[in-house]
Structure formats: structure tokens, C-alpha cells
Design brief:
With about 220 residues, the chain is an alpha/beta fold. It contains ten helices and eight strands. It has a four-stranded parallel sheet, with helices on both faces. Strands 4-5-6-7 form a four-stranded parallel sheet. Helix 3 links the parallel strand 2 and strand 3. The longest helix has 21 residues, at about 195-215.
């Protein structure tokens, strides 16, 4: 899949499941549960033990999913993720070497940033989206609205503090997509094996996304 296709799919699907789990097996189960609820963009974070195994297996066995790697901290790790099959890279902060590697390889990049200065630096370096993290700690939707007022050209993806209550306001504020972690991939649900809870939350998030897009004539449905 080309970078343009990956970008379009992220914007169309709108919700990225950010998966942190204790084992690769649980990470795969969480991804499948989210997909059952309609969330087909999956970010396996490198905080998952043997995360590359999960990325490799999911990329090979679930062709209907778009699988990326998160919490990528350096270019060496980024290259390993790409070799495992990741179709996009996400970092919690801005690392120029990772962004440059992604550009050379023609892979979509989401660099993390928080302040306007950091956002501009990541965007100008070539990050395709800028991940606003941790968004909830700086005001959530009101912060995104303020950022979009002065940086309308930068497609931003809030992560951190995104849940069923904040998803709608964040989309209304101008988010290109949303990264949803613990609210969707609940640690308690994983521990208890209650994957139906993940599926149910995924369906609710997708319904919120659908309602927002139906209400916005400028946003593709």
C-alpha cells in the first residue's frame, strides 16, 4: 500500500486503536476485538513485549487491517518495525532521524508534539500527521481548536485522554483522526479476557465518528 493510500485510509477510518498489552498474544487478541467493532487501523506499541512478533503476525494474517508501530523511539527501532511489516510509524515525540527514515522509505509518519513550536518543527521536517500527545493534559478539544485556528494546514491526531466523552468534541475541533488507547484497549478487559468490552467500545467510537461526519458536509462519510 502506498503512503498516500495509508494516509487516506487513516483519515477515512478515523480511529486508531493504540494497543499496549502484556504479551504479543494479548495484543493480537485486542487488535482482533477492536477490528470486530469496526476499528481497522491498529497501532502496536513497542512497549508490548516482543512487539515485532505481533506486528509481523498481524500484518501477515489480517490483511483487512492497517497495522503500524507506536512508541518508536529511534531510527534503528523504526527500521525493525518496517522490516516486520509496519505500514506507518508513530513516535511520542519528534525525532528527526525517524522522520527522515520514514521519508526515505516512503512510509507514513506520525511524530509526536505538544506545543506550536514542536508541531511546526515536526510538520516542516516531513511528518505526515502530527500526533498531539498527551492531548488531554492540555485541555483536550479546546486545545485542538486553538491549534487548528493558527495551524489549519497541519493534520493533527490527538492521543491521550481520548474516550467516549471526548471523541466527538475532538473531531468537531478539527482532529484528522483520533488515537485511542486505554479507553478502548482496557487493561482490565485484557486481564479478564473480556474482549467483548473492547469490541463494544470500538463500535461506540465508530458510531461517534459516523455521527460527526454525517453532521459535517465537508467531511467524507
Amino acid at each position: 500500500m502506498s503512503k498516500a493510500e495509508v494516509c487516506r485510509r487513516i483519515e477515512e477510518r478515523g480511529i486508531i486503536a493504540v494497543i499496549r498489552a502484556a504479551t504479543p498474544t494479548l495484543a493480537l487478541a485486542a487488535a482482533n476485538a477492536a477490528a470486530e467493532g469496526g476499528v481497522s487501523v491498529i497501532e502496536i506499541t513497542l512497549t508490548v513485549p516482543r512487539a515485532l512478533e505481533a506486528i509481523r503476525e498481524l500484518s501477515r494474517s489480517a490483511l483487512h487491517l492497517l497495522v503500524g508501530a507506536g512508541t518508536v523511539l529511534d531510527a534503528s527501532a523504526a527500521r525493525e518495525c518496517l522490516e516486520a511489516g509496519a505500514e506507518f510509524l508513530v513516535s511520542p515525540g519528534f525525532d528527526r532521524a525517524i522522520v527522515e527514515l520514514a521519508r526515505r522509505e516512503g512510509v507514513l509518519m506520525m511524530a509526536g508534539a505538544l506545543t506550536p513550536t514542536e508541531i511546526l518543527e515536526a510538520w516542516r521536517a516531513g511528518s505526515d500527521f502530527v500526533k498531539i500527545f498527551p492531548c488531554g493534559n492540555l485541555g483536550g478539544a479546546s486545545y485542538i481548536q486553538t491549534l487548528k485556528a493558527v495551524l489549519p494546514q497541519v493534520p493533527i491526531i490527538p492521543t491521550g485522554g481520548v474516550n467516549l466523552q471526548t471523541a466527538g468534541p475532538l473531531l468537531e475541533a478539527g482532529a484528522a483522526a483520533l488515537g485511542v488507547g486505554g479507553e478502548l484497549i482496557s487493561a482490565a478487559a485484557l486481564q479478564a479476557g473480556d474482549f467483548w468490552r473492547i469490541t463494544a467500545t470500538a463500535r461506540q467510537l465508530m458510531e461517534i465518528l459516523k455521527r460527526h461526519r454525517c453532521a459535517s458536509p465537508l467531511t467524507p462519510v
